[in-house]
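[Meeting: bench + compute handoff]

Bench side (C.D.) handed over the final construct sequence. Compute side (W.E.) agreed to return the predicted structure before the next meeting so the bench team could plan truncations. Sequence as handed over:
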Amino acid sequence: MLMYSFLWTAMAEPTADEAPKPVETSGTLRLVATQRPGFVVDFEGRELESGLVFDSRFRTQVDLDLSGWTLQVGGDLIDGQFAGSPWNLDGTTHNYHPEVIGVFNASNFNLRAAQIKRKFGGLAVQSGITTSHWGLGLIANDGNHEQLFSRTDYGDRVFRTAAITKPMDKLVVMVGGDWVLEDDIGGYTDGHMAYQGLASAQYFANKDNAVGFLSVYRKQTKMDTEKSLEGMILDVYAKGLQSVGNLELYGAVEGVYLHGEHGQISNRMNPDGLAVRSYGTVAQLEVRHQKATMGLHAGFASGDANPSDDVYSTFSIDRDYNAGSMIFDLHQAATEVATYNLITDPEHAGNPPDGVEFAVTEGAIRQAMYLQPTFTYKGFTDWMDVAVGSVLAWQTVPVSSPFISYRNGGVAVNHLGEVTTGYQLGVEVNWALMINHQYDSGLKNGLSIEGAHLLPSANMGVEDTLSMVRVQQTIGF
């Protein structure tokens, strides 16, 4: 989605005995094996076949100190599936390309940093390619914040020029501008020219207690049609950590409102575009103990109950902010691709509607809400954690597939053409065993074994429980 960040680290003062290192390197190699289930994805009976697939990613960065200037260069290498059984669905609209085996194509190499930074007294400046993250990652997410029972595969990328200052103690203010390379709603890599100006203010009592406000103006034009969207975003977040005896209580919340005009999406009654009025929020509550953590995460993304009017109310949480690994990230993602293939098939639609590409979100939490209770136990050893949890999910508008329902005379049906009732999507049950070890050399080794089991509602058109197992190895330095 829209991208913004604050570069708090650019304002951090080194300690008296902490001289800048001339060269700093970091990197993480991630290897994943996933056994996915199979299920039907459209009303014509096409099925995503079950299969075992292996994927990799090497994320690295080099920081060079050049006489007070800092040069950062880094990115993702060999990022994709290298063996196994890919998706058997046509099309290349899913940006991770799960239908492809191979890690040496151009799409498997993504530049995440190529920028310079410097401090001039109380002012810090930056210019170049960077990733963007704001607050909890609800709408701007760098894809570098791991979450329990899920994975991050993307990251918002921009060419940013910005200035950051501290007008008073603990207050950080930033103003800047972006040329968008990649994010959820379209950047240069997706055929859009998107620019945005941004300003933010954040107050940090300390690293665990902060509040921030962000405003952004964005103008985006699709290069092949010259249709554009423009609008404003207002975002606020807060987080806090409080000790109570031998416990720590953590809470965080972020909310965002989008207001603008979307000329890249239209309907029969409004061929010139739609007004955008959408909003979303996420919240995190955790009770932390030395041996265990109990958590409750929640999210809400507004939906569009009337796709024929002149207002577009659908909101999507950033695709790298996840809840579980099945109900959205796999099942929804696969049915999105299948629906896109139907809409763009000349046998079903002679002229695909404007904005059809926005139907594919890579499994983002879209016009939906969820509750995610979790429990993590750390008391067995200092190198192993065991976690269990679940995701309870609903849509924020009655469950239906707009394209299939339209073909069905307006009667609400799902992607399989089956009549739906109510809002319920289903329940996902998760478990994980996580092993981590750091060597004296600084090398970090991690291994996790995770399972996800989807108990779908009747609205999803799946009769049996769907199960997935994932094994992930990480090596970092």
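W.E. noted at the follow-up: DSSP finds two helices and 21 strands in the chain. C.D. will use this when planning the next construct.
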